[in-house]
Amino acid sequence: MKTVICLLLLAVMGIACSSEPAITTEMLDGGTLFDPSIYKPESYLVSKAIPNPTPDQAKKPVIIACHGYSATTFEWDEFRAWANGPTDFYLSQVLLGGHGRSYDDFKKSTWHDWQAAIMEEYDRLVKSGYTNISLLGSSTSGALLLELVSSGYFANRLAPRTILLVDPIVVPSDKSLSLVGLVGPMLGYFETQQSVSEDKVFFHFRPQETLQQLQNVLTIVRKDLEKGITLPSGCTMKVYKSKKDSSADPVSAVLIDQGTKTADGSPIAVELIDSELHVYTRLNLRDQITVKDRQNQTATFTDIVRQVLR
Amino acid sequence: MRKKCLLAALLTWVTISKTIGQPPIHPPAGAVLDVGIRFQKSISFYTENGITAQYAHPKLVSKRLFLGLSYITSRLGTAFQSNAIKQDNFLVSAGYYFRPNWVVRPMARLNVGYFAAHYANPLFDELPKTSPLASPEFGLCYCPDVPLKINASIGYNLLTGNGVTGPGTLYPVFVQTSVTWNILKNSKN
Hints:
The complex is a heterodimer of chains A (310) and B (189).
Chain A: H1 2-17, H2 36-39, H3 46-49, H4 55-59, E1 62-66, H5 77-82, E2 90-94, H6 103-108, H7 111-128, E3 133-138, H8 140-150, E4 162-166, H9 180-187, E5 189-191, H10 196-199, E6 205-207, H11 208-227, E7 229-230, E8 236-242, H12 251-259, E9 260-261, E10 269-273, H13 291-309
Helix pairs in contact in A: 8-11, 9-11, 11-12
Chain B: H1 2-20, E1 32-42, E2 47-56, E3 65-73, E4 86-97, E5 104-118, E6 130-142, E7 148-156, E8 173-182
Antiparallel strand pairs in B: 1-2, 1-8, 2-3, 3-4, 4-5, 5-6, 6-7, 7-8
């Protein structure tokens, strides 16, 4: 009997520890589809499109838009489309490090790699002479931007004009992420339920290593917020948070609100959005979209521009 | 961090090695009322501390069954002088101690209760911030031949927040240690 139990245990452990995901070439994970910003960075990054701005161009506001965990520049395509034509600002869509290439590249990446792409674009813009830069982050980029502030990155640099966070994550909705250090190595990866179309712009498989990285950065940011984060002088912040969100728990907005102050000690701005979508500003490729979803998206895009141009 | 782990391992080893060699103890004849402090840490989240009490009577399942009350709060943990969310847990529990003559006793406990988080900004009043609590706990109790008990266990909150329902700061897995003293001094453990 003991032998049978031992064999069964070994079999269960074998199944649990097995495993390479069943990646196809139709998925972003497959190493054949890449984020388009890799091929044409000048279409996505202002620092590449206008590396030597005129004095007037250098004064124009630039928004660096950063996507969430396992996503790509696709997440902010609708904002670019919405703002299409002559605009009062430039939009730089950053592809986070380790993202948009392949499952293996993603698996090897750390949250520092993810964040490095934001810093690189920011530094390039500052070096080129741009003087009015704002940061826009969705989901995990919210945590990456908060960490950037709390780490003192802006202490000896031009401060961003404003930091805008859409559905930032500090507390995950799926609390099993808190156990990823224990169960992750047994499972290897996690699979997401998404459409075939979404598979081309979001990773289908999530390596447990990257989930551990996500958990690490969330813990760091939560602890930073507990101590208190002060924005650089002259910088403002606004958080837009869905009231119901199965990825980034809405209580994340509470933690950011309680833990962040402007340089003069004022509170930051927070707006709760009547939505159940995570990153409600991205509607393309979703199964069902309501009129309310469209209204939320347009209202937030309008407010983002208002915050940046004021 | 590594030093803390080594210290914890050392203390555990010293405790176990000392207690294994001890002769069985004899449970007291009278009722037991253990009163003490409880330290709790949700895995990957807050530390919450507070007070705990449990009562056992000789006529109640041979004094293996303990009925208890606990109050733990982040105010005495992570939220103490920090921006963390202040939250309170009120627990009623039923604990069963196996091997009542052993110095180290396996134990199981079932907690039910009420959870309330307090958000500083009224803007968040519409987010979930209260919840019933239900959690089984399993662990060991170090019960030497004095009125002291040191109990360590791991528990699982069956009800947690998921971004749609339930408070977001209610996490599933926690570990707790409680240190109590039997205040009915005429009896031992």
